[in-house]
Design goal:
By secondary structure, the protein is an alpha+beta fold. The protein is 34% helix and 23% strand. Strand 1, helix 1 and strand 2 form a beta-alpha-beta unit.
Length: 88
Amino acid sequence: MEMFNSHSPVLNVHGETCDTVVYFLESFIRDNVKLGNVYIGVIHGRSSNILRNRVHELLKKNHNVDSFRIDIWNPGMTIIKLKIDKKQ
């Protein structure tokens, strides 16, 4: 069973603006779909939840995202499961 682990790709947007997060996150997801990675992570921090809310808003709209959740061990990170076509 495949799952998120220490070798899974992670994007760190902590400290970025909401506008730059859009570009970085969409590119990161697109690249990982091409690479066939099912699980990825995004570090957004946990201070004011502004970045977390923006990341989650973008993930809800992205057709390549199957599901996402806050990491139980690190609430400043979201774990994302991508929709990957196994026939590629």
